[in-house]
Amino acid sequence: MTHAQRSKRLMDQWGFNCSCSACSAPAQEISASDTRIARIEALQSQLTDLSPTRNASIATAEELVSLYEEESLSAPIAEAYYYAALECSYSGDLGCVKKWARKAAEVGRLWRGPDHADTRRWEALLADPEAHETWLYKLEE
What we know:
mainly alpha; single chain; 6 helices; Serine Threonine Protein Phosphatase 5, Tetratricopeptide repeat; 65% helix
């Protein structure tokens, strides 16, 4: 969420103004963070678009991972790792799929727990990428 969204939610739900380092940063840093958050949303939209005109790539997914890291989104970064694994799977790059799916599964087990549906999905991709529905995925034209 952007700074304004986070601040509003904290006040509405919990009745306080946060003073953590992210919330009390100088205006220039808050603006830069908000710009990164907007870019994260745009990249995720590109990565979930499976239409024939999609323009996502592994570079798109890697940029998403980088932005998650810059924003210190250490738990939900598993989702960014999964997007990267999917991009690799679409093109049939086995080593790349395993690299990113392993990261997603490792973080997912800690973040969501080993029995969560997302964690199981990430582990299934890691276990057998070539049997996954996304392997060499071709868009219908």
